[in-house]
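Schema walk-through. Below, the input block comes first and the output block second. Nothing else is stored per chain. Lengths vary across the set, and this one has 261 residues.
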Amino acid sequence: MHLSHESVRSLRTGVLGIAALVALWWLAAVTVLSGARIPTPDGVLTTAVDDGFGFYALHFGMTLQEAAVGFGYGTLAGLVVASLVLLLPVAERVLTQVAVLSYCVPLVAIAPVLFIVIGNPDEGQRSGTATALAALAVFFPTVVGTVLGLRSADRACLDVVRVFGGGRVRQLGTVQLVAALPSILAALRIGAPAAFLGAILGEYVGGVQRGVALVLKIAQQNVDVEQAWAVGIGCALVAGAFYALFGLVGRLVTPWSRGTA
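--- output ---
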């Protein structure tokens, strides 16, 4: 795939920005913040290498599984609700309020409630609480992005479908969903990192034998600053990878949204 000049320049700027940030981090850690519990980049890297790839694959793999399943459920629910808003205008206010309510309730506050209802996961299985929080994290962005995209459909195209006998369902499937693809993918670009964060918050409630939150809690108890930073940076890299992945998918699937053929 050929990268445009703009993409190359953006990538170069991003790499230079990260390098500058790491340099400032190292300089601050050995000078003005030397008395604080701020590890140096080489200390974090050494700890990550000592822990080994298998250690991070084990725990990140479980959290990614919870995030992926929750992301699927939340996305599906969001698409269904957004479609119902278009097909059943009379129910729009109720459905919109449900979506807003899911966004307004803090995940940290609802996590213990979900844990009481769902309970501990079986040994070696993903956490139901983490999966549910991942689904909640992606639900609202999906609903908003999908509704906005569905309503952006060209009225002339909708009229053509109507003239040929198509009803609302036919309009939704042939015109509105296609028009909504850029908005849906943009919403998923935001929702994917949010689902990963939701899964981590769900693991913090307890009951998990594997997962990113478990490693963070152990590092906190052992005052292992380097490992905590290593896991935190790993989480940032995973979230950033999800964001970039859906951005790439959006460019490939909906090139017309960027004015290209």
